[in-house]
Specification:
The chain has 398 residues and is of the alpha+beta class. It is built from 15 helices and ten strands. The protein folds into four domains: 15-98, no CATH class; 99-180, DNA polymerase, domain 1 (Orthogonal Bundle); 201-352, Intergrase catalytic core (hpI Integrase, Chain A), CATH 1.10.443.10; 363-397, no CATH class.
Length: 398
């Protein structure tokens, strides 16, 4: 293993190769010190092993006493109290240039090696994809993935990034640093936790009506089951029981499997494009492609109806909406936990904090005099309210 040279200025071993320079004795390797910004080079191997200075980069302001000592010359021929300052030529380069010799294409190759390692370690495809995108973002920002301090600077200077995004970038690089054998101390970013956006049911229905057949069915499954987008995209026709009106959700991200009831409306939507393929959503090669198509329909629907709130609806919004609706109807947190497939109830308790603003919403009210009438209303989605003079009152959102 090549021995790392020591900086002759400060004695640090945090030195990086900084290209080569041509001398009278041939090419010699240049080095750059990350501690004091000192540049030096080794003399030709035919001579002594002493280090010869190439360049010193001073980062002090020009008007400081320390700078005046090193970067100025005083002309003795001038009168007293006058100074003839001679410009000192300096070459300023970013630390990135001296810290790595890898090009963008080489760094992207390292990212591919890292993602393949993640796959061998059993990470989920969605996790591998998201971390790969974040590392590529670092490379596009000219970050040196093998310089943890430079990564910290890149993250800290992104004013448009939220603390939540910065936290995600830190977690991504932390795993990469473990894989690459780099030592670094993680910066601390604590995002402000916000309650999720909960749309009104009619806004979800408007979005479903404004999409094509497969996107509409995808959204309807999310609305009725609260399943994750990846779980819905991976569904096959074997998971749909048209006779018993059930759907079998295969979990992702460590959730529990579950079998849930679906409506006649969803059965009809799925039957409209039933085919001989195993997969349900055959028009799309990946979830990413389906999401992009959905975003176009969402933008079109929001513009057509003049409702910008529709633009805030995502696939995961349907999961939040379903969980919130179920909890406010049943007040049973264990039921909601089972519905979502959560293994830890702490993840489900979020939905007890959401306040469903129903006070100003309009309802359809019905009265049931017999058991059969009450049963029909419940199957139609009506909610029992109370009993007055022997009659049972039910309500349902318009």
């Amino acid at each position: 293993m090549t021995k790392v040279p020591t900086c002759p200025q400060c004695g640090s071993t945090r030195t990086w190769k900084d290209g080569t320079r041509q001398t009278e004795n041939g090419k010699t390797q240049r080095y750059y010190c990350r501690e004091c910004c000192y540049r030096f080079s080794e003399t030709n191997s035919n001579h002594s092993n002493e280090l010869r200075t190439v360049q010193t980069v001073h980062r002090l302001p020009l008007n400081t006493p320390s700078t005046l000592l090193f970067d100025r010359q005083i002309c003795a021929s001038q009168a007293t109290e006058t100074k003839n300052l001679v410009k000192v030529e300096t070459r300023t380069e970013t630390r990135l240039a001296g810290a790595t010799k890898l090009s963008k294409s080489e760094l992207k190759g390292k990212i591919i090696e890292f993602l393949w390692w993640m796959k061998k370690e059993g990470y989920k495809e969605s996790t591998i994809f998201s971390r790969g995108q974040r590392l590529k973002r670092f490379v596009n920002l000219n970050a040196n993935l093998y310089d943890p301090e430079h990564i910290k600077e890149i993250i800290a200077t992104q004013d448009t990034w939220s603390d939540a995004r910065k936290e995600g970038m830190v977690y991504t690089y932390d795993l990469f640093a473990q894989w690459a054998g780099l030592n670094w101390i993680k910066p601390h970013y604590k995002p402000i936790r916000k309650l999720p956006f909960i749309p009104q049911e009619r806004e979800i229905d408007d979005l479903i009506a404004g999409s094509n057949k497969q996107i509409s069915a995808f959204l309807q499954i999310g609305k009725e089951t609260g399943a994750r987008a990846g779980e819905i995209f991976n569904l096959t026709w074997f998971d749909i029981d048209l006779q018993n009106k059930t759907i079998n959700i295969t979990p992702e991200k460590g959730s529990n499997p579950r079998i849930l009831k679906i409506s006649n409306k969803l059965i009809g939507m799925l039957s409209s494009f039933l085919n001989k393929e195993t997969q349900i959503f055959t028009n799309y090669k990946s979830l990413k492609t389906l999401r992009r198509t959905f975003q176009r329909y969402r933008q079109r629907t929001a513009h057509k109806l003049g409702n910008p709130r529709i633009q805030k609806i995502t696939f995961h919004t349907l999961r939040h909406w379903k969980a919130t609706t179920e909890y406010h109807q049943t007040k049973d947190i264990l039921h909601v936990m089972k519905l979502l497939g959560h293994r830890n109830i702490k993840n489900t308790l979020l939905y007890t904090q959401l306040i469903k603003q129903e006070e100003n919403e309009e309802y359809i009210s019905k009265v049931a005099q017999t058991i059969d009438e009450g049963r029909i209303l419940i199957e139609a989605g009506f909610e029992y309210v109370c009993e007055i003079q022997g009659a049972k009152l039910f309500r349902k959102h318009k």
